[in-house]
Structures are given as C-alpha cells and as structure tokens.
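User: Here's a structure from my thesis project, written as structure tokens. My advisor, Dr. K., wants to see whether a designed sequence matches the one we expressed. Can you design one independently, without my sequence as a hint?
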C-alpha cells in the first residue's frame, strides 16, 4: 500500500532498486529480471516465444492478473475485465472494467491503484522507445497515459516515470 513500482522490461528497469519498494507489479516475463508480488499479462500464451513462456509459467507471484482465461490454470490467476475502446478523451477509473491502451503497464498502473492502494506509482522499464510492436501507437499511448495520470491525480495518486522513455516529459 502507498508507493508501488510498476515494472516493464525496458532499459530503465536497471534503475529499479527493489529495496526501495515494499510491493511491485510487473508485466509478462518480468521474473527474468525481478520477482514481483504481482504480474499483469494481457497477451495469450501463443504470443510468447518458448523462452519467455517458460519464465512466465515458472513465475510464482501472489497474483497473476489477466483478462484471458487460458491463464486460469495458474493457482495465482485473478481474472480482470477490460473495457471496450480506448481512453482517448478521459480515463474512467470508476467503472468495474480496466481501461486499456497498447501496453500492459497501463493496466498494471490501474491495478496498483485499485487493488494495491497505490498513492504513488513509479514506472521502471516502461520506456517503449525501441519496442517493435508499439512503434505505430506511441502517440496514442502518450495520450492514454496522460489521461490516466489526470484521473489518478484526481484520486490522490501520482505517476512517477524513471528513465528516458516516451512518457518522461508528459507525466
């Protein structure tokens, strides 16, 4: 509760010091780098290489959040619901479903706030500078994160970006 780290696997993950945080939420195969208390995985199993899938399958967080039921064989599986559409205008945190963007850390931030009581969310490894699957969506992701930041700020929670990724100057 309080200050939560949300971890992607980009270059700024090297700035993360686990001893500075009680809780951390990572995405996908984060356990290759850090053992987080929770994992958010929004992609189906078929999207991962065998090496990445092995890391995900062998991870043992307290909670494994996904909207995809093919992960439900995990003992730590917790199903979440994702809203239709994107938060291009506003990010509504008062509905049951989680707002989505084009990357898992976006949903992980909402989980940090809703389920883990975050009042401050620190992003590490959420750089998205050289991500091969996100190049055409960077402007939309910036907009979505800006809208999420505004919505969280209204609830008393702020996002702090570490590193030199695409979110550095907008949040």
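Assistant: Designed independently from the structure alone:
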């Amino acid at each position: 509760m309080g200050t939560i780290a949300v971890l992607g696997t980009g270059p700024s993950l090297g700035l993360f010091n686990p001893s500075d945080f009680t809780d951390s939420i990572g995405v996908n195969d984060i356990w290759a780098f850090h053992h987080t208390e929770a994992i958010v995985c929004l992609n189906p199993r078929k999207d991962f290489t065998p090496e990445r899938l092995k890391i995900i399958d062998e991870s043992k967080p307290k909670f494994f959040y996904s909207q995809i039921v093919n992960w439900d064989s995990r003992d730590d599986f917790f199903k979440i619901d994702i809203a239709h559409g994107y938060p291009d205008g506003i990010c509504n945190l008062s509905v049951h479903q989680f707002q989505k963007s084009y990357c898992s850390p976006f949903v992980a931030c909402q989980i940090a706030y809703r389920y883990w009581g975050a009042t401050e969310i620190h992003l590490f490894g959420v750089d998205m500078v050289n991500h091969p699957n996100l190049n055409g969506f960077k402007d939309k992701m910036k907009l979505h994160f800006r809208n999420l930041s505004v919505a969280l700020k209204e609830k008393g929670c702020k996002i702090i970006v570490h590193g030199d990724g695409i979110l550095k100057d907008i949040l």
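When you compare it with your expressed construct, this may help: The radius of gyration is 15 Å.
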